[in-house]
Specification:
With about 325 residues, this protein is mainly α. The protein contains 13 helices and no strands. Helices cover about 75% and strands about 0% of the residues. The radius of gyration is 19 Å and the shape is globular.
Length: about 325
């Protein structure tokens, strides 16, 4: 019961923040036209700082790579499945992109960290594994592959070749921060050293602002859509993200002979609702932002029910 209560409290907290952002838009404190500017601020300033900080301070051990491979395979398979279903449904290009963005990589940091801390209170290695899964197995493809998907399927992408979208990403601050973080990671920097502490504390402050900025952008994008237009996309995305992905993670745990604790971490991380950041990318590159925002908001609400059920079924 306490486990379910933690999930409920965390999800509802983010839902309330989004509701506040919706009210701010209704009261004209912020406007829908502010969304692209905020999205650009996140993708070109905040995210690069967070990516570099996370990679530079989290060296990866060899024994943990199987967990990263498992969550990455689950996310990439979900991404491809979303593309296939969206294409078969003959949805417009931007809607296919929105479906892919909202059905691939979960919000492992939003609910995942507090959930892991509660489920394994005396196991620091469990939290370390969860951080690795989030920052490398989820965070890197979320900050990289999802950006390329948004570029390619967004209105700005048009019918340009995928290679052109990829070149645009390679020139982006996100990619530069990714490369810099990977190069610095083996050095094992200590963020608490007097010389480095102010820099990494700055990164921490920026990271603390990300959830609010992401929720604000999501709230600006949320619009009423007739159920007949988006219900199929919501159902498909929920099945892929909240059910199929943790099942595939559990299956891989059996293949790789992972421990019970690692299986449970993998299932929990795989069952996370869609991350909020894809709505930022959708807004930045005009890749069905309203549809993407509505799907993500539904995921947050549905996870109150699906997370405990999936964990009880697959986490044993």
């Amino acid at each position: 019961m306490s486990h379910n209560l933690l999930v409920l409290q965390t999800v509802l907290a983010y839902a309330l923040v989004i509701l506040v952002c919706i009210l701010l838009k209704r009261w004209q404190v912020v406007h829908e036209e502010d969304g692209p500017l905020l999205a650009r601020l996140v993708t070109e300033v905040a995210l690069p700082a967070v990516i570099f900080s996370a990679l530079a301070t989290h060296p990866i051990g060899r024994s943990q790579w199987l967990l990263v491979v498992a969550i990455l395979v689950a996310g990439m398979t979900s991404l491809g499945l979303a593309w296939l279903v969206g294409t078969l449904l003959k949805r417009p290009r931007t809607q296919v992109g929105a479906l892919m963005l909202s059905s691939s990589f979960g919000s492992s940091a939003l609910i995942g960290y507090p959930l892991i801390q509660y489920a394994f209170p005396h196991n620091p290695q469990a939290l370390a594994d969860a951080i690795l899964l989030s920052e490398v197995g989820v965070g890197i493809p979320l900050f990289t592959i999802c950006v390329v998907v948004a570029m390619h399927f967004g209105e700005a992408g048009g019918d340009q070749p995928f290679s052109q979208s990829l070149r645009g990403y390679v020139r982006s601050p996100i990619f530069m921060a990714l490369v810099a973080g990977l190069l610095v990671s083996p050095l094992g920097l200590d963020p608490n050293r007097p010389i480095l502490a102010p820099i990494f504390k700055t990164f921490d402050m920026i990271q603390a602002a990300l959830p609010l900025l992401a929720c604000l952008i999501l709230g600006l994008q949320l619009k009423y859509r007739p159920a007949r237009l988006i219900a199929p996309l919501i159902i498909v995305s929920a099945v892929i993200q909240l059910i199929f992905q943790p099942w595939l993670g559990s299956l891989q745990a059996t293949w790789y002979h992972l421990s019970l604790t690692q299986r449970q971490i993998l299932v929990l991380e795989g069952a996370m609702p869609s991350a909020i950041l894809p709505s930022v990318f959708a807004a930045r590159y005009r890749c069905g932002p309203a549809i993407c925002a509505n799907i993500i908001f539904f995921h947050l609400l549905a996870s109150v029910v699906t997370l405990p059920l999936v964990f009880a079924t697959l986490g044993s």
